[in-house]
Amino acid sequence: METPFKEAIAICKTLLRNGYDAHIINAPLQQKALAESHALAVDIACEPEFETLLKLFPSVKPCLEERAMAVLEQEGITFRFYALDEAESSHPELAQIRITPTILAQFPKEKRIHVALTGFGVGDEDTKDDPYRGFSNLATAGEIRLLGIPDETLRHNYLLAVRALRFAANFDLPVEPNTWLAIVRNASRVLDYVSTAEIMDEWRKVAAESLHRFVRLLFDCQILHGLIPEVAALNCVKQLRNDVGPEETVFEHTLLCMQHYPEGSFHYDWLGTMAMLFHNVGKLYTAEYFDGGWTFYQNHRVGAKVTRQILRRLHFLPEDIDLLCHLVRYHIRFQFMLTDRGIRRFKMLDEYPRLIEMTRAKMTAHGAASTYINHNLKYLDRADTPEQMLEPLLNGKQIMLETHLVPGPMVGIIRDALLQAQIAGDVTDKESALTFVKEYAARNI
Questions:
Q1: Burial level of 441, CB count in 10 A (0-12/13-18/19+)?
Q2: Sorting pLDDT into bands at 50, 70 and 90, what band is 298?
Q3: Is residue 204 very low, low, confident or very high in pLDDT (cuts 50, 70, 90)?
Q4: Paired sense of beta strands 41-46 and 77-83, if any
Q5: Rounded to the nearest 10 degrees, what angle do helices 250-260 and 211-220 cross at?
Q6: DSSP state, 140?
């Protein structure tokens, strides 16, 4: 920390110890100005009037410069004092001074207009369409930082708040604290002044594997609460992690599912990952606490209907709405141990590979055993085989009844012969199967 700043902090502490508010005006900007200028000067905002300052700092003098009320020369450093706003009815943001004429004077003339607006330049006009305009260099900063005074920068384009979250999610970088607080403070204005279409345009640029981080950031800064309140409200709905496991919020489980979905064979499936975002939204409307536990009966059906309303509000394409609602509607189908008939019905569903991946992500998020999934996958290929080719039309008991045989190897031989006849197409129904076993037994006994 530069010596001028250390001295300024000492002055602020003196004021605070004497019962008066004080702070260094726009510390990040002044620190930049000190690095680019040879002038050693720091501006301070404080509560006391000049007479009180004079008692605390006998060397202080009245300042004739614009807006400043006092100046103090100390060890070659110039400290200027500005009065804090004290009117109770003033705008909240006026209670903190962010820019002063002396701070502006330390920058080149061509930069002053940008400094006055955003703290320091956000780029030339010919870079207006640059998506990184308004941000510090991500490679060198190692964090997502808005240029200048973050609140002032956002005032000129509130879409930058959503873009900052998109960068943070895609590059897995932290958001600089002042930038983050500016986004949180302006969350309602983002929702008021940025169109849903613009927000969703930024959202679609988030990679599938980063969507869970993006949604988490939207939730933490309160934007999600206004954009998709149905999903944000899942943070108030509880469930057991694995039937007997610890309790968790449905929202936390949803984020885990979104994280695990792209880890499988659908690495870049943006729509599939978005389906994971909405797959539990029906639990908000179907949750019931009964006999010491939570139930969510038919949440998949209800969720599909709610998802359609949300996606229409977010201006999704009709074909994408149909796809996402279909995935939400059938996302639980593969998580039960299916019979041959169940496997066949499942494989008739559109997008069944995505449904399988959704089940895998859910089970991983739950920390549940994959026994049912492995069983279903093992028998999935059987669905390509005609049903009459999997089991003979007559069981062993029926064969013995028709052929008057006693239990023994011959019953199994006749059963296998019957199955082969079915595969060859010589036997197509139960009547022809009865005839076949009788004739086969007559020829071979």
A1: buried
A2: very high
A3: very high
A4: parallel
A5: 150
A6: H
Residues with Cβ within 8 Å of residue 54, at least 6 apart in sequence: 60, 70
Nearest to 274 by CA among 235, 197, 198, 331: 331
d(CA 348, CA 326): 13
For helices 270-278 and 250-260, angle between their N-to-C axes, nearest 10 degrees: 160
> Please, what is the angle between helix 352-366 and helix 270-278, to 10°?
60
Give the separation between CA 209 and CA 259, rounded to whole angstroms: 6
The structure tokens listed for 198 are 């613009």
Q: Which residue has the tokens 């808005």?
A: 146
Query: Which three-class secondary structure string do you get for 30-53?
Result: HHHHHHHCCCCEEEEEECCCHHHH
Question: What average pLDDT is seen over the chain?
Answer: 86
The end-to-end CA distance of the chain, in Å, is: 102
How many helices (H) and strands (E) the chain has is answered by: 25, 9
Under a CB-based contact definition with an 8 Å cutoff, are residues 119 and 112 in contact?
no
70 φ/ψ angles, rounded to the nearest 5 degrees: -155, 160
Residue 36: pLDDT band (50, 70, 90) is: confident
Residue type, 164: A
Per-residue burial over 133-148, b = 16 or more CB atoms within 10 Å of its CB, e = otherwise? ebbbeeeeeebbbbbb
Tokens coding 26: 């726009």
Place of tokens 């012969």: 417
Q: Residue 94: what pLDDT? A: 60
Q: What's the confidence (pLDDT) of residue 345?
A: 84
Question: 215 pairs with which residues across the strands?
Answer: none
Check: CB of residue 252 under 8 Å from CB of residue 238: no
| Count of positions (residues) in the chain | 445
- 22 — phi, psi (to 5°)? -165, 145
Closest among 44, 110, 48, 113 to 81, alpha carbons compared:
44
